[in-house]
Recover the amino acids of this structure.
């Protein structure tokens, strides 16, 4: 069982209590979409509310001339340390952003602008998040070359694959640590070794889905840049960070040691000039506590979640005609991605969504259905990619949620197959 | 994507989903592959289909016809909730009416009735094509004029 307190056991001020009309949990769909976002941990919400209502911490953290600003700045530095501690980084390597998307953009465009005279080639993979793929596509429009690696079976990028793709003019490699659709974990260290041998390319890791699910060690894995998100870790939306290594000993000609980025926004010079703008104290404090809690998550809790995920898989597999996506041996504990044979994706989601909140592998909102590009890259057919569901469990998932989900799927999938004559 | 209450009701219930079997043979577990090859299952049951599963939408209608009327209709549909809901509605409405190659309502009216987004109107045309194929089969193979009711 979980050694973390469940929400009902936590001290929540009355003014933060869930309205009674929303408290009827059984009337809400079972939430199995924690990879999309997590509910804010009540402890985080309480702390954020304290900052918002504080007479002492409301100041502008950049206003160091008075105690209000100093208090806010102190709260932010505490959060910086909490985040750094949770991911094996130094506090001064943390650059606050509005989330992982901004962090990815800052990493990719920041490197591209600074090192464009060194080379204009980037290596990434076809299964990255759009927050990486779209910036790369934009750089292609500006004349850059991008190599998109196709993962090996199960979703892994092989070190040899990467080595073959690197060129003398490669300046950036961007590989995610945990895939947001399949949950497959990438071993970053061998990737970093390949980059180090090549000598020119910086390694950026999108770790938005990794924190709290597997070990994240920025200092030890060899990455130079790492994107983080608060709302995937029971923190608030609108907060994230880019870790920028200051320990990198590698030097480009004429550069001092460490990674250099060109800022994308200007006006105030906050965050060492890399991300101007008044810092959102309450968001950052929330992220700090959320990361501290994630770092304190016990092996027993991860085991509990993995057991629930396995229980879900056993129930889904019993329906028959289902295929598990991604390498089951290298997937984070909370995620299960399944393709259902003989059912259409949009109907599948429509059938289950009133009672289970999950994500589908397709973006079927128009006449042109878009199957999951991640699953397509892993070799699934377009049809099976569209009829896939991503179940992502979380800190507050309990056994009855899993059993309810299995019951819904056990009714909906056979019904849709009957309707389809499958 | 959100769906109208009507769409959701027809999508979720779909009592007319299935196939029509030979009346004189008890085949409760038969599937589409067991019967209806070629398209004429019995002298009274006809089948038409349109679309392609690999392209995301496929619809089939079975209709039982006698005395110039559609006695009963069943459908199979691989498609989105709008496709299934409209196919169910067509099968429901067709029972007991004079057989015609046209849908009980034109696609434009069905799109309004079920609040089908404009970009998905092509799927209603597949429902229409499947119905047209079944009705034409009935009208042609029973010696009638496929362009009119029998």
């Amino acid at each position: 069982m979980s050694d973390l307190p469940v929400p009902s056991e936590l001290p929540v001020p009355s003014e933060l209590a869930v309205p009674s009309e929303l408290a009827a949990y059984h009337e809400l769909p079972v939430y199995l979409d924690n990879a999309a976002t997590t509910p804010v941990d009540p402890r985080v919400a309480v702390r954020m509310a304290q900052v918002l209502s504080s007479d002492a911490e409301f100041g502008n953290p950049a206003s160091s001339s008075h105690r209000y600003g100093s208090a806010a700045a102190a709260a932010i530095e505490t959060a910086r340390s909490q985040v750094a501690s949770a991911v094996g980084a130094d506090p001064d390597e943390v650059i606050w952003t509005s989330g992982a998307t901004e962090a990815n953009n800052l990493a990719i465009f920041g490197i591209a602008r600074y090192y464009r005279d060194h080379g204009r080639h980037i290596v990434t993979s076809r299964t990255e998040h759009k927050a990486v793929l779209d910036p790369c596509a934009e750089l292609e429009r500006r004349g850059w070359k991008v190599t998109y690696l196709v993962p090996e079976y199960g979703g892994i990028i092989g070190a040899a694959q990467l080595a073959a793709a690197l060129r003398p003019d490669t300046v950036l490699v961007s590989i995610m640590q945990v895939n947001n659709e399949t949950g497959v974990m990438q071993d970053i260290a061998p990737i970093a070794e390949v980059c180090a041998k090549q000598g020119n390319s910086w390694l950026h890791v999108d770790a938005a889905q990794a924190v709290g699910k597997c070990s994240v060690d920025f200092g030890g894995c060899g990455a130079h840049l790492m994107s983080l998100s608060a709302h995937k870790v029971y923190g608030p939306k609108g907060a994230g960070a880019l870790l920028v290594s200051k320990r990198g000993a590698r030097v480009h000609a004429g550069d001092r040691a460490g990674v250099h980025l060109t800022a994308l926004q200007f006006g105030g010079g906050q965050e060492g000039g890399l991300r101007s703008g008044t810092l959102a104290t309450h968001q950052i404090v929330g992220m700090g506590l959320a990361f501290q809690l994630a770092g304190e998550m016990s092996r027993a809790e991860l085991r509990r979640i993995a057991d629930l995920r396995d229980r879900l898989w056993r129930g889904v597999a019993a329906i028959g005609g289902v295929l598990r996506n991604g390498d089951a041996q290298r997937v984070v504990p909370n995620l299960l991605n399944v393709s259902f044979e003989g059912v259409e994706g949009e109907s599948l989601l429509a059938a289950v969504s009133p009672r289970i909140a999950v994500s589908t592998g397709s973006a079927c909102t128009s006449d042109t259905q878009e199957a999951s590009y991640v699953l397509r890259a892993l070799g699934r057919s377009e049809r099976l990619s569209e009829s896939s569901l991503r179940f992502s469990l979380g800190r507050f998932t309990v056994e009855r949620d899993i059993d309810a989900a299995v019951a819904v799927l056990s009714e909906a999938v056979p019904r849709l197959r009957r309707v389809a004559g499958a | 994507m959100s769906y109208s209450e009507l769409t959701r009701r027809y999508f979720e219930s779909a009592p007319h989903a299935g196939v029509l079997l030979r009346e004189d043979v008890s085949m409760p577990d038969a599937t589409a592959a067991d019967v209806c090859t070629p398209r004429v299952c019995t002298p009274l049951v006809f089948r038409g289909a349109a679309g392609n599963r690999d392209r995301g939408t496929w619809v089939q209608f079975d209709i039982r016809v006698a005395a110039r009327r559609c006695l009963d209709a069943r459908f199979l549909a691989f498609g989105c909730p709008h496709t299934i809901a409209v196919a169910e509605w067509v099968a429901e409405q067709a029972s007991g009416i004079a057989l015609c190659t046209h849908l009980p309502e034109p696609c434009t009216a069905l799109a309004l009735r079920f609040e089908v987004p404009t970009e998905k109107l092509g799927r209603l045309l597949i429902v229409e094509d499947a119905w047209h194929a079944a009705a034409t089969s009935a009208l042609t193979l029973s010696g009638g004029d496929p362009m009119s009711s029998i």
User: Anything to note?
Assistant: Confidence is low (pLDDT under 50) at residues 24-43, 146-150 of chain B. The domain at 5-24+31-141 of chain B is CATH 3.90.1010.10 (Sufe protein. Chain: A).
